[in-house]
């Protein structure tokens, strides 16, 4: 039965708190990860291929862990609620991110990233919590706003991380410029943990393990199982297309600017521009999803994304790259939120945790595949090849979504 369209004060407080938590999570991630390859390069005498591979592993290990444990956390979320999952994710991330700042070598970073991934998932669980608490006629807007939180953080993070890395690198020397953002991120995640604990109320009644439907029965009862699986695949491909670029974006910018001293700051700008595009477009696209349906918006986002990756592979200017990534960010506002809106509209409330956890597993597999493929291709061939392959994956995704046909939702 659909929820009432009247929203309570508790709903708004939870929404703003979780939005802020997703913003901090996105900002903390982008303050540190776009510069992880530069951090690793300062920790040892590594070759170009070693730096690319270690950077890819540092990205991928988090998502390997997520893919393995997400179904377990999803099962627990359906029994205990999504708020507890948000508390778990933010609390452990506060600890592991802080400890990563003390890294003595690349292997240490890879290990800490694996531990972090085993307990992560704040944005996914916050999104699932809001999806379960929101009337269906507002789901498109809410999903886009939850994505806006992470992307707004992704917008601020690289700029702040690049500025902090440059400032503390000049002040303290060596790798310390890349360590400080980890310490700041850890403190912010602890604040997120406190806010989620004390300000978020979830309308949820815990149920026992025995009362839960088996996953096989849930999947059999879904009104459109092909559509759900199609959205899982879409989540995987879209995430792979995003993460194939992230591990090498700072190195790509560096290759365009040999000898420049402000590479970290400019790489931060290039890394941030997709977030700006998404931030500007997300609200309008979210309302459009509620009008015309998320599947139609998803198709447009995928084909526009494919077209934009072609000139990215051809440019030699970091500023043109930044502009194209800005447009890609606008297209991205019609990809992942649309897929999540489709899941929201086609999933029973009692199964949100497990369906979204499976979606998170596909997202993690996509991130793992994207980061490793991007790092390997750039190490063996060149950075431009990553953009060609990434664009092709979005074209494949578009064909898959077209094959699903029109959805009633």
TrEMBL record:
The name this protein carries in UniProt is: Permease of the major facilitator superfamily
GO cellular component entries: plasma membrane
* PANTHER family the record matches: MULTIDRUG RESISTANCE PROTEIN MDTG
Which Gene3D superfamilies would you find in this protein's record? Answer: MFS general substrate transporter like domains (1.20.1250.20)
Q: Which membrane topology term applies here?
A: Multi-pass membrane protein
The record ties this protein, via Pfam families, to: MFS_1
Location within or outside the cell: Cell membrane
User: What InterPro entries has UniProt attached to this entry?
Assistant: MFS, MFS_dom, MFS_trans_sf
The keyword Metal-binding is assigned to this record: no
- What sequence ranges are listed for the domain Major facilitator superfamily (MFS) profile? 14-409
Xref: SUPFAM superfamilies:
MFS general substrate transporter
Which spans are transmembrane here?
16-41, 53-73, 93-115, 146-168, 180-201, 222-243, 263-285, 297-314, 320-343, 387-405
Q: What domain of life does the native source organism fall in?
A: Bacteria
Species the sequence originates in? Lactobacillus pasteurii DSM 23907 = CRBIP 24.76
């Amino acid at each position: 039965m659909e929820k009432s369209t009247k929203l309570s004060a508790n709903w708004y407080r939870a929404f703003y708190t979780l939005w802020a938590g997703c913003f901090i999570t996105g900002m903390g991630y982008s303050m540190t990860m776009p510069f992880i390859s530069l951090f690793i390069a300062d920790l040892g005498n590594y070759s170009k291929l070693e730096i690319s591979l270690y950077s890819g592993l540092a990205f991928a290990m988090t998502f390997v862990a997520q893919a393995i444990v997400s179904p377990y956390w999803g099962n627990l979320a359906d029994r205990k609620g999504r708020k507890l999952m948000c508390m778990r994710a933010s609390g452990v991330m506060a600890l592991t991110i802080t400890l990563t700042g003390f890294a003595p070598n690349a292997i240490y970073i890879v290990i800490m990233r694996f531990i972090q991934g085993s307990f992560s998932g704040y944005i996914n669980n916050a999104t699932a919590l809001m999806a379960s608490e929101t009337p269906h006629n507002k789901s498109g807007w809410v999903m886009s706003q939850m994505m806006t939180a992470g992307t707004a953080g992704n917008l601020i993070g690289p700029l702040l991380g690049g500025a902090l890395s440059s400032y503390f690198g000049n002040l303290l020397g060596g790798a310390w410029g890349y360590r400080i953002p980890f310490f700041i991120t850890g403190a912010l995640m602890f604040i997120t943990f406190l806010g989620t604990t004390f300000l978020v109320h979830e309308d949820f009644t815990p149920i026992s393990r025995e009362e839960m439907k088996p996953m096989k029965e849930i999947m059999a009862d879904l009104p459109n199982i092909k559509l759900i699986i199609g959205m899982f695949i879409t989540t995987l491909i879209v995430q792979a297309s995003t993460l194939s670029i992230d591990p090498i974006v700072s190195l790509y910018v560096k290759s365009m600017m040999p000898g420049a001293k402000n590479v970290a700051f400019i790489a931060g700008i290039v890394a941030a521009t997709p977030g700006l595009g998404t931030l500007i477009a997300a609200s309008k696209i979210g309302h459009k999803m509620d009008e015309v349906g998320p599947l139609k918006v998803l198709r447009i986002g995928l084909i526009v994304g494919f077209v934009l990756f072609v000139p990215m592979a051809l440019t030699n200017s970091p500023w043109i790259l930044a502009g194209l990534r800005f447009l890609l960010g606008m297209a991205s506002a019609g990809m992942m939120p649309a897929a999540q809106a489709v899941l929201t509209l086609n999933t029973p409330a009692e199964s949100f945790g497990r369906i979204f956890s499976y979606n998170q597993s596909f997202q993690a597999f996509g991130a793992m595949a994207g980061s490793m493929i991007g790092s390997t291709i750039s190490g063996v061939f060149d950075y431009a090849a990553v953009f060609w392959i990434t664009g092709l994956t979005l074209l494949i995704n578009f064909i898959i979504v077209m094959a699903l046909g029109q959805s009633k939702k």
